[in-house]
Amino acid sequence: MALRHLRLAPIFKKLTRLENSDLLKSKNQYKLLCRLSHFTYVPDTVSASDGETTRMNLFQSVTNALDIALAADPSAVIFGEDVAFGGVFRCTVGLQDKYGRDRVFNSPLCEQGIVGFGIGMAVAGATAIAEIQFADYIYPAFDQIINEAAKYRFRSGNEFNCGGLTIRAPYGAVGHGALYHSQSPEAFFAHVPGIKIVIPRGPLQAKGLLLSCIRDKNPCIFFEPKILYRMAVEQVPLKDYELPLSKAEILTEGDDVTVIGWGTEVHVLREVCQLAQDKLNVSCELIDLMTILPWDKETVINSVKKTGRLLIAHEAPLTGGFGAEIAATVQNECFLNLEAPIERVTGHDAPFSHVFEPFYIPSKWRCFDAIKKLINF
Amino acid sequence: MAAIIRALPLTCIRYPKYKSAAIKTASNALQFQRLESTSQQIPKLEEFDKPQFPGSQSRWTEKLEFVRGDIYDGIPVYRVMNRDGNIIDPSHDPKLSQEMITKLYKGMTLLNTMDRILYESQRQGRISFYMTSFGEEGTHFGSAAALDPQDMIYGQYREAGVLMYRGYTLDQFVNQCYGNKNDIARGRQMPVHYGIKSLNFVSISSPLATQMPQAVGSAYALKRSQTGLCVICYFGEGASSEGDAHAALNFAATLNCPIIFFCRNNGYAISTPTHEQYKGDGIAARGPAYGIPSIRVDGNDILAVYNVTKAARQLVVDESKPVLIEAMTYRIGHHSTSDDSSAYRSVDEVRFWHQKDHPISRLRKYMENLGWWDENKEKAWKEETKKQVMQTVVKAEKLKRAPIDEMLKDVYDEMPPHLKEQLEAIKAHIEQYHEHYPVDNYEKN
């Protein structure tokens, strides 16, 4: 796609150098770096039963998952633009050296080719892990994903399928990505029966969910919030583990308002819940949806039945966003329980622009204000 | 044979004579082979006078000269027999057995009979849609016969003969077109969208050229599994204009995939003639630009198609690289039952190809020259095929459609909760409103 020279790799390289320098070894310095972002990352904790762990950021946990997938499945291959040298976000570093050039390789610069090629590998029974360099550049492959990948099993009467295909793509706002390095296209794909769409909120989930996607018998799109690649750091189990798809997670229990998000927005909402508690004495139940399609209706509905109020937040534009699907479903299932209209705090119905990002994204203050509305209705 | 296919170096495009010049310059061209290592080699001092750009390997020129695509004779059309069924150069006669030739001829004519009857079925409103293969039977059977039965096939939609050669039965064809309960795909797709795993024929889908990069991916997987198998991917000259065709050719070349690209150039994409489809020398001329050995063949000469496909198969498997075959032919039938081709081309033009240069009549002449076929055999076989197809159609028409559950199955490997809910809802609805729906046409659960 056009304007690749504007891509963000150099900026992230600079950040790595910063991050690895002694300057940033202390917690305070790291916080300084994070203050530039619109949220604070709070590491998840693992239980002792998860075995040996190591500190990983999100891109390292992705690499770790890919490493495990390739080791366990000799048919598995990784390909895309610039994955051979390690990827522009470092997600595939070392994998070509470890597994060989026939298993980790660059493709020509052509997204429709990458996805079509991946479908074909999967149809032949192999495991194909395709990378689209930015979610913003997935649209040339829209036809292959929607008309082909999603419909392969159905249209052939289960004679053929491309269940072995996983498409990974960096996703979401990054601070300065403007129109074509910031997009959150999940709602386009949520309208397509036959695929699964998964978005993790941190390294722990990224590894488990990505391994589930790779091994799931259906074509999956795995969106990786790129702002978290380096910022989100936590202890991640070294073992091979999977997290269930189509299963939301309740992060904090609460009684007054149900708050739903996915990807980076979960961290924004975590702060919002704290704010609501501190400033309004409101108890929020925070849910990370994680799988957009097929989504976990049950968990969401049960929560709203308890709280009677719902806030949905996502970075993508409001109109036709996935929040609309959740709101309509909850309205239908929880009509008698709802005590206020469902609030959606999202990106605006405009392209994602460069210098206006702080006003565009569903910031914690916009979300906080929505909670006030929900409570005061 | 193989030598002709093997090396059509990029340099040839510059010169007016494609034919012998191509082979003569083949060795010359070796020095222009691009380095495949990841980093550029640092040149020795004496080589500095050559261009060192990483993007190409060639020499300097001080002449300002555009490479013109319109100054050379087109890539020649390879043929084995003439329109009277006579072998032109005996050394190119594949010398297929009488049994094999008879099988091919019977296949082509059976397909022709099935096409006529199913075309009529559509005209009578018995099936919703149909696409015939009239005039292109030679490309189907000639190429199919040259493949290993385990080679994977990706098609467009006008390759029913390939599937027939593989052993897809009349029942299977007709059941698919009728979308009855015996259709492998449960009646989900439009007619002529065939596909079956056991014959390694990937299910057809309507979006054009999408199968092309997919076929490349499958070829890559086959290469890795070291089965000695390859993939063949069929497409029309119209589909070649899609972005996916570009993706496929480039990926196949750079990733060294054992795949035969088989283009059926039949002169039209629905109503669009080739001169509105492209300005270059057809599809075959694009191959060398991608670094793909390419050849053009008379698609109405089944023996030529057989030879070319066989040699191509050898090349792609031995050298693990793609080959492009462009089979020149003519679409004698309408594009589909939704099309009346007399709106954009003359009846005389169609008549010429039907009467003067038809793959079926040419093979028949070849067989008659050898004393393998005659009028009586022809008559008896025609009767038999007609009877077979009619019986199959009558049987298929009587079958009900699959249960309506099939509408929501196979969307995923397992039915997710929201689809189960929707299935229950539709069942409850139909129970209440059944008189408003054609429920009797569908099998009960």
TrEMBL record, chain A:
Role summary: Together with BCKDHA forms the heterotetrameric E1 subunit of the mitochondrial branched-chain alpha-ketoacid dehydrogenase (BCKD) complex. The BCKD complex catalyzes the multi-step oxidative decarboxylation of alpha-ketoacids derived from the branched-chain amino-acids valine, leucine and isoleucine producing CO2 and acyl-CoA which is subsequently utilized to produce energy. The E1 subunit catalyzes the first step with the decarboxylation of the alpha-ketoacid forming an enzyme-product intermediate.
Enzyme class: oxidoreductase
Subcellular location per the Swiss-Prot or TrEMBL entry: Mitochondrion matrix
Required co-factors: thiamine diphosphate
Name of this chain's protein: 2-oxoisovalerate dehydrogenase subunit beta, mitochondrial
UniProt-listed SMART domains: Transket_pyr
Gene3D superfamilies: 3.40.50.920, 3.40.50.970
Domain of life: Eukaryota
PANTHER family per UniProt: 2-OXOISOVALERATE DEHYDROGENASE SUBUNIT BETA, MITOCHONDRIAL, 2-OXOISOVALERATE DEHYDROGENASE SUBUNIT BETA-RELATED
Classification lineage: Eukaryota, Metazoa, Ecdysozoa, Arthropoda, Chelicerata
InterPro entries, A to Z: THDP-binding, Transketo_C/PFOR_II, Transketolase-like_Pyr-bd, Transketolase_C
GO biological-process terms attached to the record: branched-chain amino acid catabolic process; response to nutrient
EC identifiers of the protein: 1.2.4.4
UniProt GO MF annotations: branched-chain 2-oxo acid dehydrogenase activity
Name of the gene encoding the protein in the UniProt record: Bckdhb
Annotated source species: Trichonephila clavata
Span of domain Transketolase-like pyrimidine-binding: 56-231
Pfam families tied to this protein: Transket_pyr, Transketolase_C
Keyword RNA-binding: no
Keyword terms of this UniProt record: Mitochondrion, Oxidoreductase, Transit peptide
Subunit structure: Heterotetramer of 2 alpha/BCKDHA and 2 beta chains/BCKDHB that forms the branched-chain alpha-keto acid decarboxylase (E1) component of the BCKD complex. The branched-chain alpha-ketoacid dehydrogenase is a large complex composed of three major building blocks E1, E2 and E3. It is organized around E2, a 24-meric cubic core composed of DBT, to which are associated 6 to 12 copies of E1, and approximately 6 copies of the dehydrogenase E3, a DLD dimer.
One Gene Ontology CC term in the entry: mitochondrial matrix
Reactions this protein catalyses: N(6)-[(R)-lipoyl]-L-lysyl-[protein] + 3-methyl-2-oxobutanoate + H(+) = N(6)-[(R)-S(8)-2-methylpropanoyldihydrolipoyl]-L-lysyl-[protein] + CO2
TrEMBL record, chain B:
Coiled coil: none
Compartments where located: Mitochondrion matrix
Functional note: The branched-chain alpha-keto dehydrogenase complex catalyzes the overall conversion of alpha-keto acids to acyl-CoA and CO(2). It contains multiple copies of three enzymatic components: branched-chain alpha-keto acid decarboxylase (E1), lipoamide acyltransferase (E2) and lipoamide dehydrogenase (E3).
Keywords of the record: Metal-binding, Mitochondrion, Oxidoreductase, Potassium, Thiamine pyrophosphate, Transit peptide
GO biological process: branched-chain amino acid catabolic process
Family named by the database record: Belongs to the BCKDHA family.
EC number: 1.2.4.4
Pfam families attached to this UniProt entry: E1_dh (PF00676)
Transmembrane segments: none
InterPro entries, alphabetized: Alpha-ketoacid_DH_E1_comp (IPR050771), DH_E1 (IPR001017), THDP-binding (IPR029061)
CDD domains per UniProt: TPP_E1_PDC_ADC_BCADC (cd02000)
GO cellular component: mitochondrial matrix
GO molecular function: branched-chain 2-oxo acid dehydrogenase activity; metal ion binding
Domain Dehydrogenase E1 component: 106-401
Keyword tRNA-binding applies: no
Cofactor(s), names only, from the UniProt record: thiamine diphosphate
Record's protein name: 2-oxoisovalerate dehydrogenase subunit alpha
Classification of source organism: Eukaryota, Metazoa, Ecdysozoa, Arthropoda, Chelicerata
Catalytic activity of the protein: N(6)-[(R)-lipoyl]-L-lysyl-[protein] + 3-methyl-2-oxobutanoate + H(+) = N(6)-[(R)-S(8)-2-methylpropanoyldihydrolipoyl]-L-lysyl-[protein] + CO2
Underlying gene: Bckdha
